[in-house]
Structure formats: structure tokens, C-alpha cells
Amino acid sequence: MSNNTERDGHSDTDDADIPTIPDRDRLEILDEYQEFTRHTAQGIADPDDDSFERTERINHLALGVAGESGELVELIKKRNRREKGDGQGQYVGHIRSEIADVLWYLTRVCDEFGVDMSDALRHHIGKLEGRVEDGTIHAEEDRSE
What we know:
Blueprint: E1 6-7, E2 10-11, H1 28-40, H2 54-81, H3 92-112, H4 117-134
Antiparallel strand pairs: 1-2
């Protein structure tokens, strides 16, 4: 895809179209979700279950991220195999569910390492905003690193 390709109504090279997050305090909902996942974690994923070592729990959660990500990718592959407009919509609910599963595992990984999700996202937003300001944000295939 070239740098001038239109995607979702925005040019890849038009950095002015990249929005900023106006109210970063709204990211606190991620911390609320993180707290919620602590109460839904069971068995090896439960940080309060002392029958598992922390390394085992982290490995389980990392494998959960990989497994659920694989399921997401598989759904996207199946969706893309369909002809455009023919049955693609049937995958949206399943894709949403897999994204939520990935998010749950990622949230639990954050918690294991004492990382607040809102802080992680604020850091990433700052990094991306810096790239926009520097003019260094572009597609991976365009990088000369």
C-alpha cells in the first residue's frame, strides 16, 4: 500500500488527521476493568491462589494471550476467505469475543507485573503523539530500520 492510499477517509501521509485523546482521565475505566479481572481469575490465573508459583501463572497467562490471539487470527482468516459482503458479518460477534478474551489475558499479564493498563496506554499514546509531531509515524513496510 502506498503512502498516499486513502484508508477510512484519511491519507496515510496526512498526520493532521490523527486524533489526540482529549481526556486521558477516561482511560481510568481500564483500571476498573483490571480490578474486575482480578475477581474473575480462577485457578492458575488467580493471583491469590498460592498453589501455583508466579512463574507458572505468568506462563499460563502468556500462553492465553497467544492462544486467544491465534483464535482471533483464525477468525479473521476465515472472514477474509469469504467473498466481500457475503457472510463476513457473521464473524463480527465472534471477532469481538476473541478480542475481549485477548484483552482479559493481557489485563491479567499487566496485573502480574504491577502495570496499570491506563498508565501503559497513556505511555503508548505519548509515544505515538511524539512520532506524529516528529513526522516519524508510518506503516511498518515503509520503515527503513
